[in-house]
């Protein structure tokens, strides 16, 4: 709900602060006092266009700020989160500042905001019924969702929507496959060329590293042979070789080890060293035998390494990665060879999904048709109650259609959309024998406000917009009709906050919060004044509305009767 509206230097308003409450908030006052200006100011923080000509005479800056209670509004908090605005769980503050030099600044919770962002969040919170501004009900695109909300079809619509997303993804995939068919033919040629090239070379896992070691060994065989030969001689070839010397030492230690146990432990360690050195000697002998390289074989190794290096450079991969890449190429070629078959499978899948969706859409459509009759009946009942007996409300439901068949058409030219196959619009006929027209084309401002009141009453709390604002709702009515309008507004205000301008005492009397708007002239400039009135002040205000400026006890008594418990 709107908790507070602050206005500074806007037309004839110098500075006012209006504290609204739950229930029915009413503004009354003489013509031209500034009642509609207050609603216009509210429209501005909800995204209405404004310019410096609206700034009060003699001032350089206009500021309008609204404070909203959003404690139960998940949709508003989601909007703030998605648009990176600071979130206060309880309160939202929207502000506009307009300078005479032409600069305009907008804020949501003290963060800069665009006009469109003000409008988007405003549309979630407030319906203003005056000059066709901020009225969700006047927008045809909202009618289907409103009817679904009234009917409680949210789960069915969500289930249908999920299926529609799957269909859309399949259609997107099919279109990409069809448009990529010629490209796939070229890709297949290229994949075959690459695979053939790799297969002809036939690289083996670990081959490159193994050949590199052999080549490195052959290129350094002289240096390696000398080192090996010298080591072999030291170990076991000359007269005083290491192994024979250690063998003698072992025998000596073995003899004395029987005398001293500590020597026995040392004997074990020396024996282990002997075994290790003997094993090394035998391996060196074997390695030495392998140092005899065939020059032709070495040349072949060089050629093979060159070929493998070419392959590595060409594909910018290691040999093992190239082997894996070849497997990927095989899979891609297989996919390309079955491309047309995949297209056929996807087309069949789409056909099946469309059939499922069409069935769900028809079920939704039937439920909407049934509930629309109830909704129309309720709305027309309220229209009669509030003095529009000659008006008839109708929910028009017809199939979405397309001029030509496309991916989303079925059963001829019926068009599947994200919410079904229905094209829904609320229509009104305000004169007997007249034609039904869209709500937006209803002529009278007061008339459209009353039509909106009837629709809102029929929705009975199923519409999530928490604030309703009515201007000129009492145009052309009086007497018992005015009382009925007031009664309906009072009932509706138990579920929604209502702010309304009225000239009728029957409506003003039953307000929960009453603002009196007046104006005074000072120093060649007019200034609007707004006062909250209660008790006897409210009685006098209603009495003036009944009998004019001249008060009488009779008019006061009548005012008290109208006010009843709404004092």
Average residue pLDDT: 85
Number of domains: 3
Residue stretches low in confidence (pLDDT < 50, at least 5 long) are none
Rounded Rg: 45 Å
- Just name the CATH architecture of the largest domain: 3-Layer(aba) Sandwich
Please identify which CATH superfamily of the largest domain we are dealing with: P-loop containing nucleotide triphosphate hydrolases
> What profile does the largest beta sheet have?
6 strands, antiparallel
Task: Give me the side-by-side strand order of the main sheet.
Answer: 2-1-4-5-6-7
* CATH topology type of the largest domain: Rossmann fold
Strand content: 15-25%
Structural class: alpha+beta
Total number of beta strands: 17
How would you sum up the global shape? Answer: elongated
Description:
With 567 residues, the chain is an alpha+beta fold. The protein folds into three domains: 1-131 and 471-532, 3-Layer(aba) Sandwich (Rossmann fold), CATH 3.40.50.300; 138-179 and 348-462, RecF/RecN/SMC, N-terminal domain (Glutathione S-transferase Yfyf (Class Pi), Chain A, domain 2, Up-down Bundle), CATH 1.20.1050; 187-337, no CATH class. The chain is built from 18 helices and 17 strands. The chain has helices at 35-45, 74-82, 115-125, 140-151, 154-179, 181-201, 207-219, 221-237, 242-257, 261-289, 295-315, 319-337, 339-385, 445-459, 479-492, 505-508, 535-547, 553-563, and strands at 2-10, 13-19, 24-29, 61-69, 91-99, 104-108, 111-112, 126-129, 392-399, 409-410, 414-415, 422-429, 437-438, 467-470, 497-501, 513-522, 525-532. A six-stranded antiparallel sheet has the order 2-1-4-5-6-7, covered by helices on one side. Strands 8-14-15-3-16-17 form a six-stranded mixed sheet. Strands 9-12-13 form a three-stranded antiparallel sheet. A hairpin with a 2-residue loop joins strand 16 (513-522) and strand 17. Helix 13 (339-385) crosses helix 14 (445-459). The longest helix is centred in the middle third of the chain and has 47 residues, at 339-385. The protein is elongated.
């Amino acid at each position: 709900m709107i908790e507070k509206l602050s206005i500074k230097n806007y037309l004839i308003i110098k500075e006012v602060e209006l504290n609204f409450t739950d229930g029915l908030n009413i503004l009354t006052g003489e013509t031209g006092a500034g009642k509609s200006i207050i609603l216009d100011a509210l429209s501005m923080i909800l995204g209405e266009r404004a310019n410096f000509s609206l700034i009060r005479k003699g001032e350089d800056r206009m500021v309008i700020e609204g404070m909203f209670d959003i404690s139960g509004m998940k949709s508003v908090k989601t909007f703030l989160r998605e648009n990176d605005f600071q979130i206060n769980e309880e309160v939202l503050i929207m502000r506009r500042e307009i300078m005479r030099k032409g600069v305009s600044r907008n804020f949501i919770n003290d963060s800069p905001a665009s006009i469109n962002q003000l409008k988007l969040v405003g549309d979630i919170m407030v319906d203003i019924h005056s000059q066709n501004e901020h009225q969700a009900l006047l927008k045809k695109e909202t009618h289907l969702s409103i009817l679904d909300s009234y009917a409680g079809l949210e789960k069915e619509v969500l289930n249908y929507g999920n299926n529609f997303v799957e269909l859309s993804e399949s259609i997107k995939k099919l279109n990409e496959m069809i448009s990529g068919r010629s490209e796939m033919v070229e890709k297949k040629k290229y994949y075959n060329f690459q695979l053939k090239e790799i297969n002809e070379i036939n690289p083996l896992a670990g081959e490159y590293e193994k050949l590199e070691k052999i080549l490195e060994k052959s290129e350094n065989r002289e240096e390696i042979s000398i080192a090996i030969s010298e080591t072999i001689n030291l170990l076991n070839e000359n007269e005083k070789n290491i192994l024979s010397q250690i063998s003698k030492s072992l025998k000596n230690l073995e003899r004395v080890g029987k005398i001293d146990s500590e020597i026995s432990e040392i004997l074990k360690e020396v024996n282990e060293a002997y075994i290790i050195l003997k094993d090394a000697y035998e391996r060196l002998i074997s390695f030495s035998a392998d140092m005899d390289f065939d020059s032709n074989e070495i040349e072949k190794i060089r050629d093979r390494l060159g070929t493998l290096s070419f392959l590595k450079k060409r594909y910018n991969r290691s040999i093992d990665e190239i082997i894996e890449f070849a497997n990927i190429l095989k899979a891609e070629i297989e996919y390309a060879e079955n491309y047309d078959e995949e297209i056929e499978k996807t087309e069949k899948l789409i056909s099946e999904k469309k059939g499922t969706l069409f069935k769900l859409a028809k079920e939704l459509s039937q439920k909407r048709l049934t509930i629309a009759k109830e909704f129309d009946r309720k709305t027309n009942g309220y229209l009669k109650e509030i003095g529009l007996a000659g008006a008839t409300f109708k929910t028009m439901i017809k199939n979405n259609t397309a001029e030509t068949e496309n991916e989303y058409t079925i059963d001829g030219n019926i068009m599947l959309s994200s919410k079904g196959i229905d094209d829904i619009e609320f229509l009104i006929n305000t004169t007997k024998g007249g034609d039904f027209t869209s709500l937006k084309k209803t002529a009278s401002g007061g008339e459209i406000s009353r039509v909106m009141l009837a629709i809102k009453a029929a929705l009975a709390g199923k519409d999530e917009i928490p604030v309703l604002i009515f201007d000129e709702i009492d145009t052309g009515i009086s007497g018992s009709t005015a009382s009925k309008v007031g009664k309906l507004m009072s009932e509706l205000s138990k579920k929604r906050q209502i702010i309304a301008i009225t000239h009728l005492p029957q409506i003003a009397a039953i307000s929960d919060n009453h603002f009196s708007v007046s104006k005074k002239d000072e120093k060649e400039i007019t200034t609007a004044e707004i006062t909250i009135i209660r008790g006897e002040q409210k009685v006098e205000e209603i009495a003036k509305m009944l009998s004019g400026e001249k008060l009488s006890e009779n008019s006061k008594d009548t005012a008290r009767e109208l006010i009843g418990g709404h004092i």
